[in-house]
Every structure is written in structure tokens, then in C-alpha cells.
Design the sequence.
């Protein structure tokens, strides 16, 4: 019962995150979400956590992977480092 509640709570939080931040690139990210860009090794930990989340529940894994992809694309689109490489 608690396992089912925990799954749907995480699914709801990830869906809310994707609706507010991940799928709306015009809405600025809070500072704690931008922390992995300062330390690239955090992405390795995020992908490992995503792997275990996918084993635990595929819906949670897919939503988390979508959030990671949205975060990476926003980083590539909106950072000055990437814009300087293009010019």
C-alpha cells in the first residue's frame, strides 16, 4: 500500500515538474535544478538513479528520463557556452 502511494506521489511530482519547468523553456529554472551544470559528474549519478527508478517502475523511469532530456536540451539552448561555440 505504501509502495503504491509512493509510486504515484513520485509520478505526480515528476509530472508537475515537467509541466512547470521541463516542457516550458521560457520559465526560468530555480537554482537547485541548475546545480548539475556546474558539476558534470552529477549527471552520472542522475542517470544511475534513473536506471534504478526504471527498474522499480517504468512510468517513473520514463518521466525521469524525459525530465533529464528536457534539462539537457534547455542547457544546450539557453547557455552562453553553447551559443559561443556556434558563433
Sequence:
Amino acid at each position: 500500500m505504501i509502495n503504491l502511494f509512493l509510486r504515484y506521489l513520485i509520478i505526480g511530482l515528476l509530472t508537475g515538474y515537467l509541466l512547470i519547468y521541463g516542457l516550458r523553456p521560457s520559465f526560468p529554472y530555480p537554482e537547485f535544478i541548475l546545480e548539475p551544470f556546474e558539476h558534470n559528474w552529477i549527471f552520472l549519478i542522475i542517470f544511475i538513479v534513473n536506471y534504478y527508478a526504471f527498474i522499480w517502475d517504468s512510468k517513473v523511469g520514463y518521466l525521469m528520463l524525459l525530465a533529464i532530456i528536457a534539462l539537457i536540451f534547455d542547457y544546450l539552448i539557453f547557455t552562453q557556452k553553447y551559443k559561443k561555440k556556434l558563433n
